[in-house]
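Figure 2 data, in text form.
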Amino acid sequence: MSRTLVYVYDIEPPRSSIGLGVPIRDRTNDLSTVSASGPSYTSALLHQLQRYRTTLPASAHLFFVPHSRSSWWCDQPSATLDEYWRNRSTTNFWRRRGGADHFTAVHKRHVLFELGCRTRKWFRPDTPARNATKFVGVIQCPWQNGHTRKSDESVAAADGMVEVPYGCSVHNSSYWSPPTVNRPLLAAASFNAGGHRNQYQQMTLRKKLSEQCRAANTSTCRIIGLLGNYNLMRGPVGHQLMVKTVEAYRTAAFSLQPAGDDPARKAILDSLASGCIPVLFHREQRALWPLHWGPWVNDSHVFFPYEQVLAGTIDVLRALAQISPARVRVMQASIAQNAHRLIYGICKKGSGASVGSGERESRCEQYVADDATAILLAEARRRATAADDEEEGNRMVRLVIGSS
């Protein structure tokens, strides 16, 4: 398949800071990473698409519609994009392939339903918006009682939604590879013990894990309380908490990852990108990000059912200590080989090799071929091609019927 070219709509004014977040320094090794909250995912993706970008729509394989809650395309996608091409071209590329070669990306599924897009016009069957691919950081949001992962996946598939990881904070491959780095700490944890929904006892679990971690000795477990901060990109307090979290993950073999408002946590990605094995407690967490994590998920996490943890039949820290060193090495090796698949832009060669900030990465000479951006684009292109094949098949059927 030829190199994918992407036309990026310039519907909105350019943003003043389009990179991956706020650069931070690891105090121990003086290596750079990036502090980026989950909502900055769109900015991160937009920045990485520069290496695939074409300004010639006729040459583009895909068309990216950047998301903003305030943008007109959110409430009126078809009207906005029809007008866009009316003013620029004799060809309406929005309708040329029925929207199948278009994609957008949002932090969570509910953004397309409840916030700026509450009119659901991205899902109307009589417009190209229905056929566009909607990449979302988590499809189970809101995480409702009685909604299984399977049922939510079915709804998402019908609406053209695909779950992909949102931006994480670590962009330096030395953080997760090689897997033999010294990790004297058994487990690390970084979360709020309140402030989220508790429909699946996730807050009850967080409090229990927090108590167990604080009761353990400092060589067993370290907890970083987030002090009610839900976005570690904001302000000096959030920034320092992000630094402490990454430092803890880099020195720990495992990280405790109880769910929050939904099964996904950006911290799971930060943990994996730090070479730290995430410990999951809800079954839905094991199914997250199937394109990017699914092929290697079984050898890169530990799972303890939250029901057994709350019932006291599993002592999490004791159970982690009993995992054999050989099994730990297998999981660490799997992370070392695959963590780049979760990162939007890993520089393989050039001056950007040690940092994910826009300034340094702009001088990158060669990127890792199968990073998160490449995987996302491959899926978008596959879906566009499948739509073309389906339309061609329907056309042939119409010809056969018409000639009979």
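Caption note: Residues 13-39, 351-362, 392-398 have pLDDT under 50 and may be disordered.
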